Backbone:
């Protein structure tokens, strides 16, 4: 079964510092990986995805993620954190569910707090 | 506004009761997915419909059921509610069945007392 793991429940970073939110994956075949963000009392919003191609993927709001096949990781990064980046971040992978359908399987989420 | 509408936003009900959560997908999207978000379990996939047909089931309890209507809106029915069913229930929609291009609604927060 396809799965992702987010080893940190919470990440704290000072405003202006670089941030990293970690994700590792376990899949058979080529992974299709995603990052989503959830702000309080809101639904999940898409940040970026890796399907194929360059290992460094750029997404919304200045975020990027690095796909590393040897380490089976897909860490989310941003060079300079903003207080407004404080939110819950989810890593996800596409999973085959049969009958010609796929769905996203999510990690447990990492709460990012950016401290002013 | 993501284009996916979920109602109601909040629901408080007693144990043993039955509730219905409603989701209207984004215009043009044929797939609807239901997820449950709780503190201890994270985001759990419940069920998927595509153009009125059930396509996949995840960790959905037998007390829960869903359907997608001809106008493509979907309803998630939760019955014999227990305290542990308290959670955020999200609906997402996509154009096809490939797992790409999910758009999430803002969720229904269910509290069972």
Residues:
């Amino acid at each position: 079964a396809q799965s992702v793991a987010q080893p940190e429940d919470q990440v704290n970073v000072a405003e202006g510092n670089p941030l990293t939110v970690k994700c590792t994956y376990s899949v058979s075949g080529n992974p299709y990986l995603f990052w989503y963000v959830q702000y309080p009392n809101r639904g999940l919003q898409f940040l970026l995805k890796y399907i194929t191609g360059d290992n460094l993927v750029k997404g919304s709001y200045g975020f990027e993620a690095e796909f590393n096949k040897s380490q089976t990781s897909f860490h989310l990064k941003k060079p300079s954190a903003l207080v407004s980046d404080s939110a819950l971040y989810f890593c996800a992978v596409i999973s085959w569910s049969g009958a010609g359908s796929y769905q996203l399987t999510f990690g447990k989420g990492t709460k990012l707090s950016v401290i002013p | 506004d993501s284009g996916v509408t979920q109602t109601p936003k909040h629901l408080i009900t007693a144990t043993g009761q039955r509730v219905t959560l409603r989701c209207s997908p984004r215009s043009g999207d044929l797939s609807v997915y239901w997820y449950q978000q709780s503190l201890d379990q994270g985001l759990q996939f419940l069920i998927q419909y595509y153009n009125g047909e059930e396509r996949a089931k995840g960790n959905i309890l037998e007390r829960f059921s869903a359907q997608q209507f001809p106008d493509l809106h979907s309803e998630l029915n939760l019955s014999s509610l227990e305290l542990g069913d308290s959670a955020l229930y999200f609906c997402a929609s996509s154009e096809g069945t490939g797992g790409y291009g999910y758009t999430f609604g803002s969720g229904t927060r269910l509290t069972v007392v």
Remarks:
- The mean pLDDT of chain B is 94.
- Chain B is about 0% helix and 55% strand.
- Chain B touches chain A through 25 residues (CB under 8 Å).
